[in-house]
């Protein structure tokens, strides 16, 4: 069981990572592949609401999805969207990307001429996607969104609350080195959010830390 201090710190990170931009008309919806099939369903919802005429699903497979789907993330997301009523002809698949930077760059190649883009990801990955999008595809107007999932409902059988917390801590600790490497723009982390991350690291939620943070 997680104690209240841990959960309070985790919620602080959750609130920081979540963005939920206002959404309007767009040229394309881009769904970032992951272990969370709810992202595909959110893309389908936005398609049916008329936000954009087409969807690009992007993602190969990674540490969290090997063995989870029969094939690659983008293919699993496409199948989920089709089951949710999105016509096959409205979906393009990019199934080679292995990180968020590649998700964006490779999807850009499938959306030539796009000016307005809706990027759909997991709730806790929104701020990282914003910073990556601003660096990798700055010429478009991008709105970042995610499934409308509460913190309590985000853990899944294959990605539990501990894994969620480790993911949020790891992404926060990647902001500075990834900006220095040119992968994304700089992200200002408020002191109270940094302190919450420090508390979680001290409590052992280190599974997703970048190697340099672990002395590797």
Walk me through the structure.
- There is one protein chain.
- This protein is 41% helix and 11% strand.
- With 216 residues, the protein is of the alpha/beta class.
- Helix 5 links the parallel strand 4 and strand 5.
- Helix 1 packs across helix 7 and helix 4 packs across helix 5.
- It is globular and about 50 Å long.
Task: Give the averaged pLDDT, no decimals.
Answer: 95
Order of helices and strands: HEHEHEHEHEHH
Radius of gyration: 17 Å
Distance between the termini: 30 Å
Concise summary:
41% of the residues lie in helices and 11% in strands.
Q: Can you lay out the helices and strands and say which pair or pack?
A:
Layout: H1 4-17, E1 28-32, H2 38-48, E2 55-58, H3 73-83, E3 91-94, H4 100-109, E4 116-120, H5 126-136, E5 141-145, H6 161-180, H7 191-202
Helix pairs in contact: 1-6, 1-7, 2-3, 4-5, 6-7
Task: List the keywords.
216 residues, alpha/beta, 5-stranded parallel β-sheet, 11% strand
């Amino acid at each position: 069981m997680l104690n209240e201090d841990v959960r309070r710190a985790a919620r602080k990170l959750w609130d920081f990572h979540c963005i939920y931009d206002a959404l309007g008309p767009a040229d394309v919806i881009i769904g970032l592949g992951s272990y969370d099939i709810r992202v595909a369903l959110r893309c389908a919802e936005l398609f049916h609401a008329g936000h954009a005429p087409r969807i690009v699903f992007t993602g190969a497979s990674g540490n969290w999805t090997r063995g989870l789907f029969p094939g690659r993330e983008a293919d699993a997301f496409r199948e989920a969207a089709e089951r949710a009523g999105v016509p096959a002809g409205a979906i393009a698949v990019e199934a080679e990307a292995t990180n968020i930077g590649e998700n964006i760059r490779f999807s850009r190649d499938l959306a030539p001429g796009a000016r307005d883009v809706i990027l759909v990801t997991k709730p806790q990955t929104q701020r990282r996607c914003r910073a990556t999008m601003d660096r990798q595809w700055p010429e478009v107007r991008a709105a970042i969104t995610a499934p409308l999932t509460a913190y309590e409902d985000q853990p899944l059988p294959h990605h539990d609350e501990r894994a969620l917390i480790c993911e949020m801590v790891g992404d926060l600790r990647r902001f500075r080195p990834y900006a220095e490497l040119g992968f994304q723009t700089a992200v200002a982390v408020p002191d109270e959010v940094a302190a919450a991350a420090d508390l979680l690291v001290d409590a052992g939620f280190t599974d997703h830390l970048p190697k340099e943070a672990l002395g590797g």
